[in-house]
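Case study 2.
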Amino acid sequence: MSENKKDDNSLNEYQENMGSNDSSFGNNVDGKKEIKNLQSVHYQQKIDELNDLLEKEKEKSLRLQADYQNLEKQTVDRINAREDKIILNFLTVYEDFIRAKDAYEKEGANVDNLNGIIKNMESILGNYEVKPIETEGRKFDPKLHEVIQEIEDNDHEEGTIMKEIAKGYIIRNEVMKYSKVCVSKKIIKE
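Prediction:
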């Protein structure tokens, strides 16, 4: 038997017992008020129990939602980390193709086919939001560039990138590979 039916039966038994002990109970205004008060207390207890249960379920739902969001973020981060490693390896192959094209070009060979392959590779990199870091003529930025060598030069402002040794790349607005550069340094006269 459910909890509600037990409580309703108890209330009915109480009403019957009160009625059997006092024949005027059913007609008595105070008796009816007492029954209504008992019913009101009984229903208020039920409402309070249901509100408590509802509050617990809300908290449980919020915790589950937060757990799901954390799991989703961790999964995306893991996928991006794996994806970034693959793209980093792909960049090595891409750069090898560019070096091969430059070498063949110096020898006077036809590099049209290599240009087509490189263009396809650049399209793939673009799909993953991979962009090269701009370097030459720009101001050194430690968030984007790694200094390999300082070149003494009074013609440029100190810290200007004079030469790029190795290209750097950004993916989804984060550096995945720093540009290796040579920067200008003022000549100190003694």
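Helices lie at 3-21, 29-106, 112-127.
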